[in-house]
Amino acid sequence: MKKTLLLAFAVVLPFPVSAQVNVEALRRDDSPLGYSGAFGGDVTLRTGNVDLIQLGLNGRLYRVTESATSLIVGNGGLGLLGGSRFASSGLLHLRQTFRRKKRISPEWYGQLNYDLPQLLNFRVVTGGGARTSFASGEWGQFGMGLTLMLEHERLDLPKTAVHDNETTVMRGSYFLTLRAVPSENLVLTSTTYLQPALNNFNDLRTLANVRIATSITDALDLTVSFDLRYDSKPPDGISALDTNLKTGVRYTY
Fold first, then answer.
1. Tens digit of pLDDT for each residue in 136-150?
2. What local confidence, expressed as pLDDT, does residue 86 receive?
């Protein structure tokens, strides 16, 4: 079965923050029953909180049954900053989506990650909700989803910082996604997340991703992606806007 790569084109909402991985850019509609997956590497140019070049490895594993799809995502990166090599980021994400005869699909997820350039020592996110597709065909799919998620963060901030070193907050997470298939070797998707704190709507995070991908062979894909992250209330010394530009290769099995 011929594999295609994704192009995630994020539009509309401001800019994003990585409270949660953009699973919409990783979702596959052609996953066979049983186990399948992908792994690859990329080179990232980061701007915003820190300017650096980062080498990354990533992988994901799917388990598909008649009733549910489980997805495990792992990412890691090493960056070069000020002549020193350091482990800049890492992420582990687990998600399970249940299949229903109706268009609404319940799901739950959990995530652990850290990001040293953003002064993030540790983050855990867990939540659940539902997604739906309200337009689909051979051209692709247009859908949306909403979840509630509990987010706990530990930051590496000085004692004089105004922002708390440790926070726990309940957020809503809402998204719109568009997936278009112009050819068998190219898939275009647009995803935008909006994640306000439920106790303070001025505390707003948004996430957008752009990925351009093409199939080299049935199993090998070439990718270019661009991420924007925005936090309306960033920690002390952290820019509200953060961007990543990645180029990479992915092998799918």
1. 888 888 889 999 999
2. 63
For the cut 60, the answer to whether the pLDDT of residue 156 exceeds it is yes
Give CA angle at 193 (192, 196), nearest 5°. 145
Beta strands 166-183 and 68-81 are: unpaired
First to last CA, the chain: 10
* Maximal CA-CA distance, the chain: 57
CA nearest to 197, candidates 170, 164, 167: 170
Do the domain assignments include residue 34? yes
Range of the domain at 221: 6-252
Long-range residue pairs from 66-71, CB within 8 A, at least 24 positions apart, any chain? 66/33, 66/99, 67/98, 67/99, 68/96, 68/97, 68/98, 68/99, 69/31, 69/96, 69/97, 69/99, 70/94, 70/95, 70/96, 71/23, 71/26, 71/27, 71/95, 71/96, 71/97
What span, in angstroms and rounded, lies between the C-alpha atoms of 86 and 80?
7
1 located within any domain: no
Q: In the 8-state DSSP scheme, what is residue 117? A: G
Q: Output the domain CATH number for residue 162.
A: 2.40.160.40
Angle value at C-alpha 104, between 100 and 107, nearest 5 degrees: 80
Distance in angstroms (rounded) separating the CA atoms of residues 160 and 9:
39
Question: Domain for residue 157, yes or no?
Answer: yes
Q: What's the domain count of the chain?
A: 1
